[in-house]
Structures are given as structure tokens and as C-alpha cells.
Design brief:
Elements: H1 2-35, H2 40-61, H3 76-113, H4 125-150, E1 157-165, E2 176-180, H5 191-202, E3 208-212, H6 223-230, E4 239-242, H7 245-250, H8 253-262, E5 266-267, E6 271-277, E7 280-286, E8 294-295, E9 298-299, E10 317-320, H9 327-332, E11 337-340, E12 350-352, E13 355-357, E14 369-374, E15 391-396, E16 414-422
Parallel strand pairs: 1-16, 2-3, 3-4, 4-5, 7-10, 10-11, 11-15
Antiparallel strand pairs: 2-16, 6-7, 8-9, 12-13, 14-15
Helix pairs in contact: 1-2, 1-3, 2-3, 3-4, 5-6, 6-8
Length: about 425
């Protein structure tokens, strides 16, 4: 217990130190640039403005500790938005500028070490080139953050995915599933945007619809409004869901289940139901957010323990579990298909050569999209080389909303249409 607390304290200290280093980098440079201005009135006014900006950013950063006092101010939400965008853009801008500086240092060092090099050999334009390169590189994250907030987070995309399912009866081949996830209703996800996503999902004419958690972000978010909009989903086999981690944080797991039922839907909490279609059936299971192995210093045991007795061997199983990290356990238990969300696809993704860089990789190997794992429990003849016939499948939805930073760059919000296929 003590060691876990120590790790968390050290992580927090490192995080705060990083924020301080990045902000000091920008504010010291801004202060120095202002000091070069000839007009003393301009210097005084801009220095004062810089101090006010630093205080505002600090207040926005500490807003959760101040009882959301900043958020309740007249321009509080705008300040929080600006601060969020500034923090993420300034961090990546810092990395970009320092990277250019590192390249400049290496090239200068190589030039000095070149045989026969003398001071006269150095081109004065080299320094100017790297100065302009640093300005350009440093500005890109700020432009990207602006785009990610103004457009990227609202550019809904429809992902159509065929998913081979082990043990799928012929009658269920072609079953169409619409999946929404991570709505996060609030300042950055108004009801009108949820309605737009629901309309897009309805236009896909799914047979069944699933919503895999995180309807809200925090206490006080309008849960009922969110679920009311989701109740407009139309599918012959119904609308089903599961809770996410933010329902736990907000303490609304029971309320979410109640409102789902009032609106003619069903939210599964360590429960199962048999869905019949075209004369065949599959077993639908749902769980609340599955915590990872260590919670408050104590091991919680393997995930999905509460549904082990609900798994069927006479029909395919489909699991709604917000946390994609439950997939390995689901595959071990012989669950043919898992649907998850939680990651938001990282909200930011960069392509470096042929590799994707996303913050979500810090918490899971299952960032977004379709994954498979060998499935053995209850399937004695399972083989990982059987063209998917004995593999468990997972689909991770990138979600609609945002959390932490109201930005999406390279990770558009998603509405998924999954079509089940026989392997």
C-alpha cells in the first residue's frame, strides 16, 4: 500500500515538474522578447499581461482543487478551454523546438569536428535557418491543437468492419451491429452533437445497437439528457449498453441503469441475455468497468469473475466491456467477441515512419480497431493458425467525446457498423 502511494506521489511530482519546465521555457522566452522592445510602456503592459496569463493558467490548472470555482465564473469555461489547448500545444511545441535545437547542436558539432574546419568555414545563415525552423516547428502544435478543437473533434466518421466470429451460426452471418462509445456529454459534447451521431447510426439500419460506456465525464454532467438522446437509436433487436469508468467516478452506475430501463433500453451489469435472430441465438453479456489488477494497493484478481457462470458453450458470446484490457481474460474464458471503448484512440496520434504514436499505448495495447487472440477455454481443438476460426475478437471504438483535452488530432470520433461473419 505504502509503495503504491509513493509511486503515485512520485508520478505526480514528475508530472508537475514537467509542466513547470515547459511553461518556464515559454514564459522566460516571452519575457526576454518583451524586454527587447524599445517602448517602455509596451514593455510594462506586456509584462503585466504575461503575469496575468500565468496566474490564469495556474488557476485553471488548479480548478479541480478549488471546487470548480473557475469553471463557474462568467468566462471560466472559456478559460479552462484555452488553458487545456495551451497546455497540450505548449508541451508538443516545446518538444518540437528542443528537437530542432538538438539537430542544430549535432550539425554544429559535426562541422567543428570536420578535418580542416576553421571558424571562417561556418556559414552565418546556418543559425538563421535553425531559428526559422524552430519557429515553424514550434508553431505547428499550436495550429494542430486549434484544428483539433475547432474541427477534428466534431468530424464524425463511420467505420464499417467485417468481424469473423468463431462458432457463428449461418443464420447470424451478416448481423449488423452499431456501436457508440465514450459520449462524455458536457461543455464539449452538447446534446445536438449526440443527436447527430445517433442519426448517423440510425441511417446505417443496424440490427442491434450497443453503447459501451462513459456517458458522462464527472459529477453533475446531464446523464439523463445523454441517455435520452441515445434512446433515439433504432434497431430491431434493441439498444444495449454497459457502464464505463466515468459512471463509477460520478457515482451514477445505478442511475444509468434505471434511466436506460425507463427509456426502453437495457444496461447490463454482470448480466446476460439471449438474443434471437433469424432462428439462431447469441449470448449477450455486459459488465461495469473492469479495473486493472491493482487497486488501492490490493490485487483484485482476474477480470470478468462476475460473469464466468454466465458464459454459454452452446452459442456465441458477445461481451460489452468498456475497458479493452479485459480482452485477454475474455479470450481465456472463450468469449468470441468483445466490444470496448475507453481509449478514445488516444485522441492524438502521429505517424512516424510506419509506426503510430498515441498516448493510449501507455495504458493498453488495444488502442483502437480490430484485434484477435487465440481462444482455448471450452474449445478443445483451438488453433491460432486456423484463419480466425478459433480466435476471440475485440473491437475498440474510438468514441465520440473527449476528456482531459478537448482535441482530436488524427483520431476522428467514430460510429461503428460491425458486420458479423462466419469464419
Amino acid at each position: 500500500m505504502f509503495s503504491l502511494i509513493l509511486v503515485r506521489v512520485l508520478f505526480l511530482a514528475l508530472f508537475l515538474a514537467l509542466i513547470y519546465a515547459v511553461q518556464r521555457f515559454w514564459f522566460v522566452r516571452a519575457w526576454s522578447w518583451i524586454a527587447t522592445l524599445a517602448n517602455p510602456n509596451w514593455r510594462l503592459g506586456l509584462h503585466a499581461g504575461l503575469i496575468v496569463l500565468a496566474v490564469a493558467l495556474l488557476a485553471a490548472l488548479l480548478d479541480p482543487l478549488l471546487g470548480r470555482a473557475v469553471s463557474r465564473m462568467t468566462f471560466g469555461k472559456s478559460l479552462i478551454t484555452f488553458s487545456s489547448l495551451w497546455l497540450i500545444a505548449s508541451f508538443f511545441g516545446f518538444l518540437a523546438v528542443e528537437s530542432v535545437g538538438a539537430v542544430e547542436y549535432v550539425t554544429n558539432l559535426a562541422a567543428r569536428l570536420r578535418p580542416g574546419a576553421v571558424a571562417a568555414d561556418f556559414n552565418p545563415s546556418r543559425r538563421a535557418f535553425f531559428q526559422y525552423a524552430a519557429i515553424f516547428a514550434g508553431s505547428v502544435p499550436f495550429l494542430a491543437a486549434t484544428y483539433g478543437f475547432a474541427a477534428g473533434r466534431l468530424r464524425y466518421t463511420i467505420e464499417r468492419v467485417d468481424v469473423p466470429i468463431a462458432n457463428l451460426p449461418p443464420e447470424l452471418d451478416g448481423l449488423r451491429i452499431a456501436q457508440l462509445s465514450d459520449i462524455h456529454i458536457g461543455a464539449y459534447m452538447p446534446p445536438a452533437e449526440i443527436a447527430r451521431a445517433v442519426d448517423m447510426a440510425n441511417d446505417l439500419h443496424p440490427d442491434i445497437a450497443f453503447v459501451t460506456g462513459d456517458f458522462v465525464s464527472r459529477v453533475g454532467d446531464p446523464l439523463e439528457t445523454c441517455i435520452t438522446e441515445l434512446s433515439r437509436l433504432r434497431a430491431p433487436l434493441g439498444v444495449w449498453g454497459c457502464n464505463g469508468n466515468h459512471e463509477i467516478y460520478a457515482g451514477v452506475e445505478d442511475e444509468a441503469q434505471r434511466i436506460f430501463q425507463e427509456k426502453g433500453m437495457r444496461l447490463l451489469r454482470a448480466q446476460s441475455t439471449v438474443i434471437e435472430h433469424n432462428g439462431a441465438s447469441f449470448n449477450l453479456l455486459g459488465v461495469d468497468y473492469q479495473r486493472d489488477q491493482m487497486v488501492s494497493g490490493e490485487r483484485t484478481g482476474p477480470m470478468l469473475q462476475e460473469i464466468e457462470h454466465l458464459i454459454r458453450r452452446d452459442m456465441p458470446n458477445v461481451l460489452l466491456s468498456h475497458n479493452p484490457n479485459s480482452f485477454r481474460r475474455a479470450a481465456d474464458l472463450g468469449i468470441e467477441l468483445s466490444l470496448a471503448g475507453h481509449t478514445h484512440g488516444g485522441q492524438i496520434k502521429f505517424e512516424i515512419v510506419d509506426h503510430s504514436v498515441s498516448p493510449a499505448r501507455l495504458i493498453t495495447p488495444f488502442v483502437a480497431g480490430h484485434y484477435t487472440l487465440p481462444m482455448t477455454n471450452g474449445h478443445a481443438n483451438a488453433s491460432p493458425n486456423s484463419n480466425g476460426a478459433n480466435k476471440a475478437a475485440l473491437y475498440v471504438n474510438r468514441g465520440l467525446g473527449t476528456f482531459g483535452f478537448p482535441v482530436r488530432i488524427g483520431v476522428p470520433p467514430e460510429i461503428t457498423l460491425l458486420t458479423l461473419r462466419r469464419t
